[in-house]
Amino acid sequence: MIDKRVASCASAVANIKDGDTIMIGGFGEAGSPIELIHALIDHGAKNLTVVNNNTGSGRVGLAALIENGQVAKMICSYPRTANSLVFPELYRSGKIALELVPQGTLAERIRAGGAGIPAFFTKTSVGTPLADGKELRNFEGENYVMERGLKADFALIKAKQADRYGNLTFNKTARNFAPIMAMAAKNTLVQTNEMVELGAIDAENVITPGIFVNGIIEVSKPQQESQLVKDGVVYLPIKSQGAEK
Amino acid sequence: MNTLATSNQQSNRQTAQIGWNREQMAQRCAQDIEDGSYVNLGIGIPEKVAQYVPDGREVIYHTENGLLGMGNSPTADEHDPDLINAGKKAVTAIPGAAYFHHGDSFAMIRGNHIDVCVLGAMQVSAKGDLANWSTGAVDAIPAVGGAMDLVAGVKTIFIITQHTTKTGDAKILAECSFPLTGQKVVNRIYTDLCVIDVRPEGLMLIELAPGISFDYVQQRTGVTLQSAAHVTMNNLNEGQK
Fold first, then answer.
1. One of B34, B64, B175, B207 is an active-site residue; which one?
2. Are A27 and B88 a contacting pair at CB < 8 A?
């Protein structure tokens, strides 16, 4: 029997190790799997490389993971956001590394990683500092820069609906990076607003097929990052078994 | 700090009063958005272009975080934190809209499927090079977002910008001094003073704001401009579409 449901957010993230690369879905707060991120903070894995378009806001979710000293390097396109407080300070003091990637190149690197493509060529960033040190190739009279596919040990994403096979749907623009991150990670962990029976998602409407999913936890009323930021919430780790190292 | 910002805004406003103001710059640009276009609008003045597209033209707005068919700002009832634009502001989706993931969204951009992108600029060169993501300052947190993808992949790139910086320095130059967003990517520049085409032979002034002369523009431009054979003076009416 295939049943990818797990008991809790804590058990979902229990196998994440120090030094792992973690893709985290979301564009700003839309699609941010905040309960899974908080479980990763409780878990305590360190020296992580995190792939996300941004660096979180306020002192919850991804920003709290960074503030807790668990992230050695961010791979992202836009590390500044309204209410982005944590990353800029750590970056300026040299405590966190940044690999800045154009947003479309970031998406394509993730898609390539998930499709078994080690590298590809794109026009994006040719002639700019972000192409420095990268191989250039001329195709049909135009220069292209080589970019590498990107893979991860884990992906943490948020879905609207999931069934026990791992078939997923998403809500509006909260979909953003989730489907391609699910493909690029060895282990894709999903928090879903709703668990449904097999067949409840019409096969024509499945966005992420279950083959790309490894663990699912239902979080029926997820917290909203902007509300937590507005309320001045600071997420502090709860010591769990996973945090004993 | 506040005083300085206010006085900058004031001097900015005074400059704008000489030519077109921000609304009129957006209005002028909107006249060049053709019926049936798929359009991506950058943050700032470019966002305003949508309000001024002439009646009778149907235009579909793309936002790179994953929506074709972006509508207006939501009412309080419609507000959904999962429905935002690339500037992370709440938006709505029109009937006929489509959602998609980032891979598909940037395939639309990088695969030359989007017709027009309107962006702001820090500097534009005579060759159409654009600098709009970084001043290269050492202590700045670098951030690029989708700008490099848009200029590399969208068919037509329109720039809306004040003709000079707040301190009066030229932004339209022989070469950009800031790090580039893309090389030879800009097609047309709309400023508070004029409209300039980027052509293989150089920058061609094609239109002037009311009361502005070619010489006035040239004095505020860091590279020699050519003048089109018939430079029109476009007297935009307030609210006209």
1. B64
2. yes
| pLDDT tens column, B107-140 | 999 999 999 999 999 999 999 999 999 998 888 8
Whether A5 is in a domain gets the answer no
pLDDT in tens, B18-50: 899 999 999 999 999 999 999 999 999 999 999
* Yes or no, beta carbons of A175 and B67 under 8 Å apart: no
- Whether A14 maps to a domain, the answer reads no
Among B82, B92, B186, the residue to mutate for chain A (most A Cβ within 10 A): B82
Report the alpha-carbon distance of residue B95 to residue A207 in Å, rounded.
Answer: 20
pTM: 0.93
pLDDT (mean) for A196-211: 98
Phi-psi region of A221 (alpha: psi -120 to 50; beta: other; left: phi over 0): beta
ipTM: 0.95
Position A138 in a domain: no
Domain ranges, residue A45: 19-119+150-231
What domains are there in chain B, each with its CATH number? 2-233 (3.40.1080.10)
CATH number at residue A28: 3.40.1080.10
- Considering only CB atoms, which chain A residues are within 8 Å of B137? none
Q: How many domains does chain A have?
A: 1
Tokens of A80: 């500044």
Decide if A209 is inside a domain: yes
Alpha-helical runs (H) found in A130-210: 178-184
Is the pLDDT assigned to residue B87 strictly greater than 50? yes
User: Which residues are CB-contacts of A165 (< 8 A; sequence separation ≥ 6)?
Assistant: A2, A4, A198, A210, A213
Nearest CB among B83, B88, B153 relative to A123 is that of B153
